[in-house]
From TrEMBL:
It comes from the Bacteria. GO terms for molecular function: diguanylate cyclase activity. It catalyses: 2 GTP = 3',3'-c-di-GMP + 2 diphosphate. The keyword Transmembrane applies. The chain crosses the membrane at residues 173-194, 201-227, 239-257, 269-287, 293-313, 325-348, 354-374. InterPro entries: 7TMR_DISM_rcpt_extracell_dom1, 7TMR_DISM_rcpt_extracell_dom2, Diguanylate_Cyclase, GGDEF_dom, Nucleotide_cyclase, Rev_trsase/Diguanyl_cyclase. This is diguanylate cyclase.
């Protein structure tokens, strides 16, 4: 049959190699209620050429569940030799694409592709529906029938086989990069989860993992590499995985931003919505309503983006510093997803970058979220170290407190005991400190305490352990120190403090200290016993008139081990 009769069917020169998509070189018509055969379409066009419309942009986009369409053109080969061309529709999620090549004096040729067809039953066992055809001299009618419940996006290419290979290579490189980064982050977070047992790493893994699975399900890589025969799964995987992606993202966000604690009602709402949309999905699945499941998923996806953005911004505004990277990451993924969604639904003109925007945005998001996790670990670590230090440090004087002092002193004590070395303990108390408080006030008392503490700290030898024991009392551990040396040190302390002058608004305040010293002379003496003994000596110094050092060698008797010997 002649195809050239009416001039309403566009003509493509077979010699042309189109660099980009070229659906605007063809005419299209949408099937109405029932599926049409090639013959029916041909006669429809012949009877009434007005059924054809002409796409204005190079990629045809018609939204979700839009029904099957036909594309038609005449390919003219003005040479004497056949010209081999590859025709392909570079969208991985179209369910069925039929290519028909009808040339005069030749048997009509049909090629079939699409994700409703098991990989090995497609004309080309490829992710993308394609057909190679040697256009004979003269005119060939090219017809394509495309059917899908998913968004109808038709970036049609008409090129040499070599040009198609180049395009495939660049697509492979792109997806290798995206999946490489995602898998690295996924593996990293899984290992962190295994090691740290913190659920946020698990949610992060699920979020990045479901992104990989979701994109692999709709771009055709999943079927090309992982489930070549699983046609049923392929039809339901994209909406299901989109829901998984959204819910794991929300689980990560609520965990990371502590939504349960900070906004309990919002958290409850998320859980309810999550359960509701999975329940709806199950209902649609049971009814076999793939289109409705897709609509649900495409409704949830932007809702999810808006929620994530709202949560991170409100958390950041509320002063949650960890939300910073989180917010930037979410912003990147939301912008990327919006650009791709607008591209595939035809709201903005089709570009390759627009088509890939969701993947790029998601990689940026995943990297920034990993950074947010690392940031959180660092801040928690800093807070923990600070809390630990605070718990062991006396805030007024900056010296160790009892909690800071005892563990270090205990281990030093057992070390010198084991090596049978000298060690002494001194207890230091400020004389008549109550009267300073009474006379000048508590604040001045604090100041004097601090001045004396600083002086003691300056006067101590390196390696001696000084701590605020409590109130106006200090303790000093002197390892590797004989009694005589300890007494010298104590006397120096006493003398230095006696010389010390604190000024308070013109008034001069002077203080003295009393010191009790004890040494370990028997190997059975514990640190506690030595401290008790030094305390006794301190009491004696006070009784004897203050501002003095009191020392007594522990008698074997008084430090006797209270446990009865066998
Ligand atoms: N300003 C201030 N006073 C403190 C602090 N800790 C303890 N004190 C005071 O130190 C005083 C200690 O009084 P006492 O135990 O009676 O002994 P004292 O007045 O130093 O007399 P002696 O030890 O017998 O020489 C009390 O009035 C406490 O309130 C502190 O951190 N700051």
């Amino acid at each position: 049959e002649s195809a050239t009769d009416d001039g309403s069917v566009p003509v493509i020169d077979a010699r042309t190699v189109f660099q980009g998509a070229m659906v605007n070189q063809m005419a299209f018509l949408a099937e109405q209620d029932e599926a049409l055969s090639v013959g029916a379409v041909q006669s429809l066009i012949r009877r009434n050429p007005a059924v054809l419309t002409y796409p204005e942009s190079s990629v045809l986009t018609r939204g979700i569940n839009s029904g099957a369409i036909w594309l038609v053109a005449n390919v003219l080969n003005p040479t004497d030799d056949p010209i081999l061309r590859r025709v392909s529709v570079r969208t991985g999620w179209l369910e069925q694409v039929d290519f028909f090549f009808i040339a005069e004096g030749q048997l009509p040729q049909r090629f079939i592709g699409g994700d409703r067809i098991p990989l090995n039953q497609r004309s080309f066992a490829k992710r993308i529906p394609s057909a190679d055809y040697p256009f004979p001299p003269g005119e060939t009618r090219l017809l394509l029938r495309i059917e899908t419940a998913d968004p109808m996006v038709v970036p049609l290419y008409f090129s040499s086989v070599a040009a198609s290979h180049r395009r495939e290579q660049s697509e492979t490189a792109f997806y290798s990069f995206i999946y490489g980064v995602m898998f690295a982050l996924l593996a990293c977070s899984l290992m962190l989860f295994a090691g740290l047992r913190q659920r946020r790493y698990l949610f992060y893994s699920l979020y990045t993992g479901s992104f990989v699975a979701m994109t692999a399900s709709y771009n055709g890589i999943g079927m090309a590499l992982l489930w070549p025969e699983a046609v049923g799964w392929q039809q339901w995987a994209p909406p299901l995985l989109m829901l998984c992606f959204a819910s794991s993202g929300l689980a990560f966000a609520t965990n990371f931003l502590s939504t349960k604690r900070r906004q309990p009602r919002l958290h409850k709402t998320f859980q309810t919505i999550g359960v509701a949309y999975f329940a709806l999905f199950v209902v649609f699945f049971a009814l076999g309503e793939q289109g409705l499941a897709l609509r649900l998923a495409f409704l949830v996806a932007p809702l999810f983006s808006v929620l994530m953005l709202y949560m991170s911004v409100s958390s950041w505004v509320a002063g949650n510093q960890f939300a910073r990277y989180f917010m930037l990451g979410t912003l990147a993924s939301v912008v990327g997803a919006s650009i791709t969604a607008s591209t595939v639904t035809g709201m903005i003109p089709y570009t390759q970058l627009g088509y890939y925007a969701v993947d790029i945005g998601m990689v940026v998001d995943a990297i920034l979220l990993m950074l947010a996790l690392a940031d959180l670990v660092r801040k928690n670590e800093e807070a923990r170290t600070a809390a630990e230090q605070n718990a062991q440090t006396d805030l007024l004087t900056g010296l160790s407190n009892r909690r800071g002092f005892l563990p270090v002193a205990e281990s030093l004590w057992s070390l010198v005991t084991r090596k049978n070395r000298n060690v002494c303990v001194a207890m230091i108390d400020i004389d008549r400190f109550k009267s300073i408080n009474d006379q000048y006030g508590h604040a001045v008392g604090d100041k004097v305490l601090k001045v004396i503490a600083d002086e003691l700290y300056r006067s101590r030898r390196r390696g001696d352990l000084l701590a605020r024991w409590g109130g106006e009392e200090f303790t000093l551990l002197l390892p590797e120190t004989s009694e005589a040396e300890a007494l010298k040190v104590a006397e120096r302390f006493r003398h230095n403090v006696e010389q010390l002058v604190t000024n308070d608004r013109g008034k001069v305040i002077q203080c003295t200290i009393s010191i009790g010293v004890a040494s370990r002379h028997s190997e059975h003496v514990t640190l506690d016993q030595a401290i008790a003994k030094a305390d006794e000596e301190l009491y004696r110094a006070k009784l004897q008139g203050r501002n003095q050092v009191s020392f007594s060698r522990m008698s074997g008797k008084s430090v006797e081990n209270p446990l009865p010997a066998d």
